[in-house]
Amino acid sequence: MAKIGTSSITDDEGDIAREAIRKLCGEVAELRRAGHQVVVVSSGAIAAGLPALGLGGSKRPRDAVTLQAVAAVGQSRLMQVYGEELGGHGVVAGQVLIAPLDFMERRQYLQARGTLARLLELGVVPVVNENDAIADDEIRFGDNDRLAALVAHLVDAEALVLLTDTPGVLTADPRLDSAASLIEEIVEVDHELEAVAGGPGTVRGSGGMATKLAAAKIASWSGVRTVIADARREHVLADAVAGAPGVGTVVVPHDRKLAARKLWIAFAVGSSGTLVVDDGARAALLGGKASLLAAGVRAVHGDFDEDDAVEIASADGRVFAKGLVRVDAATAKEIAGRRTAELPEGSPRHVVHRDDLVMLP
């Protein structure tokens, strides 16, 4: 599975760089000839739509509604290029637009998985993107790196290749430190690495190395090996799949795997608050079969609504879990510490149900 970012497939003006997509499609075809199935996650819809509407450069809009409209224009232009370039190798491209709810709702998750599986059976190369044209700003992936990691889990990929405009994860920002060198293997994505990664690298891109490391962490807990590599490198996809040395930065997969919904909760949804619990509740939750009841809640921080994600911390402030709450912040404060029999009539029995709860790695 391959993901390519906006900065790698557009030029400085935001126009589609056909040569870059031609190279990628050639390498996808090369992998298919070697017997591999390939899914492509491609950014670039908004960047591709801007020039068509005369909104590139300093005129780039900032409001969400205009950017959604731009994406609607750019997505078709982007897919036309993919269709033509893959078609030149006798390969059919299929557009797949995915929304976050496709991972949160079991029925939609199975539908998305089934569609992608059937496309691959038919010999199609799915080209996946977030449905930017109608995405709700309150609930979206935010960048295609995280989307790629979740899709890698969806299709049970063997490898995820995140293509970018650098050789991989470096020891420092090369724009600031000429001695920066490639980190060839990462066993665990920790806070130190995340600090080195920094923010977005280009104006056109929405991600950067930080989002690639976040995506690699998601993929790692899916059991998927991730390679972060330079899109301009010759035969980068084949080398990444083959495990060639020096192709980029390899993030090693974990033995333990998280289910798709719990991956989404753990890594892809931002936290809106924190619930501090007592030692008994903490022990019960870590046991893996309990829900969080109101009786175990000692403090409530933040302003959240029902179904928002919250972190769960022990009395010493250490966050050990994350989940989707079944009450808003005001209600959580009102019922905190109360036993089930003491709850007001109609109050949910669970503050966070175990099906919506994940222990953080």
Q: Characteristics of this structure?
A:
361 residues; alpha/beta; Carbamate kinase; Archaeosine Trna-guanine Transglycosylase, Chain: A, domain 4; 2 domains; 8-stranded mixed beta sheet; 5-stranded mixed beta sheet; 13 helices; 37% helix; globular
Residue runs with pLDDT of under 50 for 5 or more positions: 199-207
Q: What's the architecture of the largest domain, going by CATH?
A: 3-Layer(aba) Sandwich
Q: Classify the secondary structure makeup into a structural class.
A: alpha/beta
Strand fraction: 15-25%
Radius of gyration: 22 Å
* Count of separate structural domains: 2
In the CATH scheme, the class of the largest domain would be: Alpha Beta
Q: Could you tell me the number of beta strands?
A: 15
Instruction: Give me the CATH fold name of the largest domain.
Output: Carbamate kinase
Q: Could you spell the SSE succession in H and E letters?
A: EHHEHHEHHEHEEHHEHEHEHEEEEHEE
| General form | globular
Strand count, sense and closure of the main sheet?
A: 8 strands, mixed
Count, helices? 13
Spatial strand arrangement across the major sheet: 3-4-2-1-5-7-8-6
**What is the helical fraction, as a range of percent?**
25-40%
Distance between the termini: 24 Å
